[in-house]
Write a structure and sequence with these properties.
- The chain has six helices and no strands.
- By secondary structure, the chain is mostly helical.
- The chain starts with 21 loop residues before the first helix and ends in a 9-residue tail after the last helix.
- 67% of the residues lie in helices and 0% in strands.
């Protein structure tokens, strides 16, 4: 006699285990979220990596912040895509690469030595290549 098929478990809220380092995760979560929010208006300061870092740290230090980030209309889908598939939207990729290109131009115009701007630009190029190698989220048809 076989057992009836069971439904897959429904993921619920993640419970943060008690840890003596919980305060450090909490601090990192809020600090990185603050930097991410500042990055929305400051050219050259990235938003997405700081928000992802905030979600990672909040999952270990602040259940309330983690739940808020996942439910946020702007941040939530991006975080869920990253957590589920390591995916980054095409819009976010284009925005990141555009900002990196603008920063590269500014560096070449203002750096005291060309190799300083070239080093920063080379690092941003490697990051851009890695970013475009990330999968894009799959969205169900509307």
């Amino acid at each position: 006699m076989s057992l009836p098929p069971s439904k897959p478990p429904v993921p619920g809220p993640v419970k943060i285990p008690p840890s003596r380092w919980r305060w450090a995760w909490w601090l990192l979560a809020y600090a990185s979220l603050g930097l991410g929010v500042i990055g929305i208006v400051v050219p050259g300061l990235p938003t997405v990596p700081f928000v992802l870092l905030s979600a990672f740290a909040a999952a270990r230090g602040s259940q309330r912040l983690h739940d808020w980030l996942l439910a946020h209309p702007q941040f939530g889908p991006m975080i869920r895509d990253w957590q589920a598939h390591g995916a980054v939207s095409r819009r976010a990729k284009w925005l990141a690469v555009s900002m990196m290109a603008a920063c590269a131009v500014i560096m070449f115009l203002t750096a005291s030595r060309w190799w300083m701007a070239a080093t920063g630009t080379a690092i941003m190029t490697v990051v851009a290549i890695w970013l475009w190698a990330r999968p894009e989220p799959t969205r169900p048809p509307h």
